[in-house]
Amino acid sequence: MAERDWVVWMSTKFPLEIPATLGLTVYCPESGAAAAAGRGQGEELCWAAEGLGYARDLCSYVRMGMAMAHSSRSGGLPRPDALLCCSNICSGMVQWYEAMARTLDIPLFLVDFPYAQEGGEEVTAYVGGQLRAAIRGLEELTGRRWEEDTFDQVCRQANRCADAWQQVLDTARRRPAPLGSMEVFDYMPQMVTGRCRRETEEQLLALARRLEQRAPLPLERARFRVYWEGTPCWPVLGEVLPMLEERGIQVVADTISQSLSFRYENLDGLIQAYCSTINGVSLETGLEQRLAVCRRYGVDGVLVHYNRSCRPWCGSLQEVERRLGQALGVPVAAFSGDQGEAAAFVRAQFATRLDALVEQMEGRRETTLG
Ligand code: SF4
Question: Rounded to the nearest whole angstrom, what is the distance from the C-alpha of residue 311 to the centroid of ligand 1?
Fold first, then answer.
């Protein structure tokens, strides 16, 4: 008789290498929430969660995830056998997964990552001990055995996928870049739950080749190269993209997609890599990461999305905004929105901020060219 499929739901930056080594089927509720928001279902799911008693001021991914957890009992996302979560993105996520574990009545494997601790043997030992406990718990739950050889192969594959992902991202170094603004996000879920699979590497390499051969965007649509800070405002991307295009703004890099091309050599390196998430590192380290990306892609300006849902991210954003502009010497514009709810986005504000950004980028270009 064929062995049953074991399904887990996992937070975005849980080390995928662990369920992948055990051959578990992985879904990511945040990717599911982002996709639902992009399809225009964000409001409906948020209302459903509010009807279940979840407060409106919670992150929209949390509310949508709770609504999905309830609907998985009646045929939504495949019902999981266990949940995997870690605190390297935000503490709210921990409570979200605890609530899903109660709702679904399944085990939760939780790994605590110390905040803003990007290095050190103590951190590696602390996180490593918890990962080993999670592995033992998953072995007991599934009856599957942990094999070090399989883990090594899975890690090597994850690194190869990271290289392929970087090749895709780096096609945007071309001027003009062949990738449309935010297009790279279409492929990001593959890196979240598929980074340990050979098919993902092959698909990404094929994508990089297609992009290399793709005709560049017409110059009038790519006059300015911009770095996007923050999660995309999924529900209104249909409005946002033409507004960027009309003004000749091309998003060539962003915070999230760049954060997925990390590599490592061994288990300690893996732990360090998962410690270094955008929200999990210190302000200084986060700034260095962003500056390196902005310089690599040669941006003319920065566009900052104050995503109402994500307070851990937005808390330090004003300082990030100020210091990025100062260090790069490029204009920075900010606007308000949300990753899940269209109502938080104000079209008129966005248009005004974009116009101001374009004016400043033009001014800077004229000054630089003399
Ligand atoms: S608050 Fe931010 S980091 Fe936390 S779950 Fe929501 S979007 Fe993710």
Answer: 7
Give bridge partners of residue 251 from the DSSP assignment. 226
CA of 103 to the centre of ligand 1 (A): 20
List Cα–Cα distances, 33 to 25, 277, 364, in angstroms. Answer: 18, 20, 39
- How many angstroms is it from 312 CA to the middle of ligand 1? 7
CB atoms within 10 A of CB 134: 20
3-state secondary structure of 116: coil
The pTM of the full predicted model, rounded to 2 decimals, is: 0.93
Supply the angle between the helices 42-51 and 29-38 in degrees, to the nearest 10. Answer: 120
Q: Are strands 82-86 and 25-27 parallel, antiparallel or unpaired?
A: unpaired
Is residue 248 included in any domain, yes or no?
A: no
User: What number does the ligand 1 atom closest to the CA of 313 have?
Assistant: 2
In a domain, 109, yes or no: yes
Distance CA 92, CA 95 (A): 5
Ligand 1 centre from 305 Cα, in Å?
14
Q: Residue 20's domain is classified under what CATH number? A: 3.40.50.11890
Is 368 part of a structural domain of the chain?
no
Asked if residue 241 belongs to a domain, the reply is: no
**Residue nearest atom 1 of ligand 1, based on CA coordinates:** 310
Which ranges of the chain does DSSP label H, i.e. alpha helix? Answer: 17-21, 29-38, 42-51, 60-71, 91-104, 121-142, 148-170, 188-194, 198-213, 237-246, 255-258, 267-275, 283-296, 311-314, 317-328, 347-369
pLDDT band at 339 (very low <50, low <70, confident <90, very high): very high
Beta bridge mates, 27? 9
Nearest atom, ligand 1, residue 231 CA: 7
pLDDT tens figures, 89-146: 888 899 999 999 999 999 999 999 887 666 678 889 999 999 999 999 999 999 999 9
Structural domain harbouring 110: 7-144
Task: Quote the number of domains for the chain.
Answer: 1
Region 198-219 average pLDDT = 93
Does position 1 have pLDDT exceeding 90, yes or no? no
